[in-house]
Specification:
With 111 residues, the protein is an alpha+beta fold. The chain contains 2 helices and 3 strands, in the order αβββα. It has one domain. The structure holds zinc ion (ZN).
Length: 111
């Protein structure tokens, strides 16, 4: 097992990335998945959707334990869920950037 990470050995850029990750992880809701907007016809003969666009709904789609699962997001939760999905993406991107720095360190000195 490697020695624990010392902040002193990190570049200012990496320290800043890691602080941002910690901030998101402790202060934001986050949710992995993609959002899918769908519209469907309800089948009632007199409904406006017969000729129009259909009823819009928002689904959260996620792969989980090797399978795809999805859930319909009710209207009042759509904004918070969009926000949580965006926070997850942001955090994921920051983690990937830190991983890239580690990759380069590994190439240079095998550690
Ligand atoms: Zn309808």
């Amino acid at each position: 097992m490697a020695a624990p990470l010392s902040r002193a050995e990190l570049s200012a850029a990496e320290r800043s990335l890691r602080s941002h990750i910690a901030q998101l992880a402790s202060g934001e809701r986050f949710l992995r998945g993609t959002l899918s907007e769908r519209s469907s016809k309800c089948g009632k003969p007199n409904c406006h959707c017969v000729n129009g666009e259909g009823h819009k709904s928002l689904y959260l789609v996620q792969s989980h334990a090797g399978k795809v699962r999805q859930i319909c997001v009710p209207k009042p939760l759509q904004n918070p869920v969009r926000q949580a999905v965006a926070e997850y993406q942001k955090m994921r991107q920051l983690i990937d950037e830190v991983s890239e720095l580690q990759w380069k360190r590994f190439l240079k000195r095998k550690a």
